[in-house]
Amino acid sequence: xxxxxxxxxxxxxxxxxxxxxxxxxxxxxxxxxxxxxxxxxxxxxxxxxxxxxxxxxxxxxxxxxxxxxxxxxxxxxxxxxxxxxxxxxxxxxxxxxxxxxxxxxxxxxxxxxxxxxxxxxxxxxxxxxxxxxxxxxxxxxxxxxxxxxxxxxxxxxx
Amino acid sequence: xxxxxxxxxxxxxxxxxxxxxxxxxxxxxxxxxxxxxxxxxxxxxxxxxxxxxxxxxxxxxxxxxxxxxxxxxxxxxxxxxxxxxxxxxxxxxxxxxxxxxxxxxxxxxxxxxxxxxxxxxxxxxxxxxxxxxxxxxxxxxxxxxxxxxxxxxxxxxxxxxxxxxxxxxxxxxxxxxxxxxxxxxxxxxxxxxxxxxxxxxxxxxxxxxxxxxxxxxxxxxxxxxxxxxxxxxxxxxxxxxxxxxxxxxxxxxxxxxxxxxxxxxxxxxxxxxxxxxxxxxxxxxxxxxxxxxxxxxxxxxxxxxxxxxxxxxxxxxxxxxxxxxxxxxxxxxxxxxxxxxxxxxxxxxxxxxxxxxxxxxxxxxxxxxxxxxxxxxxxxxxxxxxxxxxxxxxxxxxxxxxxxxxxxxxxxxxxxxxxxxxxxxxxxxxxxxxxxxxxxxxxxxxxxxxxxxxxxxxxxxxxxxxxxxxxxxxxxxxxxxxxxxxxxxxxxxxxxxxxxxxxxxxxxxxxxxxxxxxxxxxxxxxxxxxxxxxxxxxxxxxxxxxxxxxxxxxxxxxxxxxxxxxxxxxxxxxxxxxxxxxxxxxxxxxxxxxxxxxxxxxxxxxxxxxxxxxxxxxxxxxxxxxxxxxxxxxxxxxxxxxxxxxxxxxxxxxxxxxxxxxxxxxxxxxxxxxxxxxxxxxxxxxxxxxxxxxxxxxxxxxxxxxxxxxxxxxxxxxxxxxxxxxxxxxxxxxxxxxxxxxxxxxx
Lengths: 158, 747
Hints:
The complex is a heterodimer. Chain A is α+β, with helices and mostly antiparallel strands. Helix content of chain A is 35%, strand content 16%. Chain A contains 6 helices and 5 strands, in the order ββαβββααααα. In chain A, strands 2-1-5-3-4 form a 5-stranded mixed β-sheet, with helices on both faces. Residues 1-27 and 38-55 of chain B have low confidence and may be disordered. In chain B, β25 (663-664) and β26 form a beta hairpin. Chain B is globular and about 85 Å long. In chain B, α12 (381-392) packs parallel to α13 (419-431) and α18 runs parallel beside α22. In chain B, strands 10-11-8-18-15-16-17 form a 7-stranded mixed β-sheet, with helices on both faces. Chain B is 31% helix and 22% strand. The termini of chain B are far apart. Chain B contains 23 helices and 28 strands.
């Protein structure tokens, strides 16, 4: 399979990348564009560690081949805010969510997708929406609380 | 005005001499300015301070910055932060001026006393293992700073006290910051004599406060660096197809298809597999998949399966002629069992379980003619260096170590051979370039090193009053220590502390006890997994105790309390059990729900838990609530203990309900998260945790609640249905099978 060159917009910046057409977006982001905040967890769309926004929608970047993302807009954790000021990032810090931290970029990107479409989700809606993303450290209680905090809920103690 | 820390001043002059082990003379340094911190961070202590002699743990800079070494690997458990808190508290540092520096690999200076001074982060043993020495060391630093201030002022040392970051002379109102003192301080060659207050009386300023973990900020914006994120100039990528069974070797390699893949640079035959080196990860993974390899059939593990293991282990567990290695023994077990009024017996099992740390194993190495540089996330910095040096046949001094954050450890990154680090060393040597070797999730499972398969058999002898007088716990499992750490195994006299931990019962008052292990070499790859042996041995204990309570018609909470000894430690156990019962409103029956309790003394930490469950028609257990009380003594970072306990419970939930590895012809059947199911947000119960802070030496917090979960759930299922499950995980088909056997139907 010979390489193709594809142009896409990553965190607002136009990028031209050359790789095999079936290369997952994940590896292009991580190894070519050096945006390593997006993590490799399973490679098969089961864990959500590689979640980015593709044309504004959260999705697993391991599932999108380079040939299918030409001309698309990609936002990674590095592009969520310039200075860690996104309400979710602040809430994540306030709740001291991360443990090993490896899944947290994906969790935050998924949560950002949720709040975009549903700014005041119920606990049930949060649980439902966030369940594609695995956190092996089991920080789920704090993730849910941080999302509620960012949504203006103030972080109700469970 | 800040309060002065008088309690500390009073102890300065008195006392006996105690040193940081491995530290010759005084062990802290004074440095000019702060920019040198960068050198310290890089582990180059000499460069940091030029001609000033230093430094093992603390460097005080003239601008007031205090650099404190942390020897712990950070894998999410928070001890990278917690250890310096202990030093800073005792030296009365201003926490806002503290910079934490990852200690370089050096067992002698930075080893954990709890692991015979191996620099090894495991076993929830970090805070508890380092605690006394770090307090002593912080006190020594404070002594020297205050002593220098006293001499400068010409006043007796006894009149000088500290405030965070300052030496203060209250009588004259004079103050000097630690940074100011650093500019003129003379550091004595001999460590001063300092006695720290016993933990029961000590006044802490930082210990017990919730200080943000230093690693968290980078974990919300993608900047935190794990070894998988490392890129070095000229680096290429590696993937390895490993032998499906430990010890097998590639006999025939057909790599034609792999070589044809664009970007593939080299195929590297290895003793244990076949490596691929490529220009990018995707080509490496594709080529690995395209390899066709025939494996030698000599390895022990071929032909093995869970069923074979269970048949073999169960027979041994029952065999009266079999003799195990005693893990813990007390009194006269045979005599007491012979005299018991009644003897009960139970058998408990556990399947293999997988760590599933989120970051698949990986490392980066750059091997040159001069030596080797490695980047890795490891639970032991020194073990990593030793293994890399051994793989290349070079002195350890030629290995440069770069410790990275760990995307989860759970015991998987602490094995003596650190094969996931040696991987990149061997591949870089073959490529003549820096190589990042990454395991895919499938590699991580197929080459996993698991919590072993277990058959536990417990016999208990009771006297005529229903009191337990004899307890014989036999554990048959795969060997763990011999496989994961042959060095420690050699000193163990055959006692497998990974497989056997948790069989000891330090708070139950049972006069005659024997816990014995019969660990088997089945050829399976094993490792410590969060909660190690306690995860299964405590399950066996606590389900069996529950069975005894039911047979005697005693309430399970009451029955456990009745078994407790009269020791202070058992009193803490009693408090934990009573408190969790109160939280869960234990006495209140719920329609369609069952409650189950479990209790555990885990290395001195007292934990008790209660699960509330219901059962679906398909045999699935739903856990609605989990209550937990944890008393780990002095809580260095209270909110972090809560976080670790939440984490332990979620981890225990997966092990309890869904997580299992099947071995088929010696190889692992599961491949990824679609057939190895770990808990997701929708699976977790309401979790209620109470942290009880007591004035005892701090004990572990990183995994203590994990074993409670399967036990409490199994016991809750019994309360709900009258049916006992005695095997982890409590799979729906096992529930249905047990219910059918008992002739019970789901309500």
